[in-house]
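User: Can you write out an input/output pair for a complex, sequences first and structure second?

Assistant: Here is one pair. Inputs:
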Amino acid sequence: MIQFDWFSRLRNRWGKWVIIAPAAVVVLAVIFIVCFNLAFPRTRCEAVKHLEAPEIAGDCYGCHVKATPKAAQDWYESKHGVQLVKCFVCHGQPDGKGEVVFALNPDVGICRKCHDSSVTNMVNNYGLEPNCVSCHPFHQNSIHHRAYVKPVAKKTID
Amino acid sequence: MAEPSIKKLFSKFIWLYFLVGGIVIFLLIPWNMARTSKNEYCLSCHYLQTHQNELEKSSHALDKDKKPIQCAQCHIPPTVGPKYLAVKSFLGMKDLIIHYLGDPERMNRRNMQEVARRFIMDENCLACHEDLNKDVKGQPLSEIGKLCHDAYLGKNGTTKHGCAGCHQNLAHLPEFDRRYLVNAKFAERLPLEKEKK
């Protein structure tokens, strides 16, 4: 076979190293990528333990407007903020009290409490797809996703 | 037979060529690493001038001794070590690939922010901000700031983010982040830059 000619010639010359050397390179590359990702994680840790601040625990917005200013402002400007759908209605209480489980990314079941008919509509028409962002690009302000890309309206800066 | 022996000599010492070449490249690495960490090198790509212009209007234009803060002071780990090498080689390769094969004029700054934040080491910030209980004027930090920093340090809960994840838009402010109230002061300083042009 012509196309394997170069390979068998290499084999004759270098023997088993023809296999070992590329394999070693691949293994080293994989190790490098794994270590690299471990050394520079996207987030410091996934399971965040929320801080405790008994005196101001009720004022989620007051603290979050400083701790996570963008998420807080997105909420404040959204329909949820205007209608005062409070943080813990979706996210639950950090200390685990209340019926809603504390979560960064609330379950659709929680949205259903207020949006049952629309969500049912949506599920009937499109099924329940986990990637909410792909269809709700302009609604994202309401759920303050950072991918929110509404054009800057009214007050332009320049 | 002269010819085959030259050939033989060549193939016998081929490892020598690789060795010499390797040593030369190896010796050039530190020099290259230093060269490509300078501001002049970053700004030799003209599209990064935007970032420099923004930096000059930000709170991080000058350090305590009124010297201009360099790109490397935030973007590259302060001490040479495995992390330094990894960051330099990864960011460098990425920059070169995008510069030559991609379209740097159409930067997606939203995605770039994510990448940049991931590679900004907390050590960089701590080099200038040693005491997390004081604000930049040396006054005690606000109650909420203290709580947040305690969470960061793991004394009271934990945080998902490092310094750059909570303190965003310190040095650069793309259009889409200007509507946020936290950035109001910074945004105010920027349009002047445009009017001047």
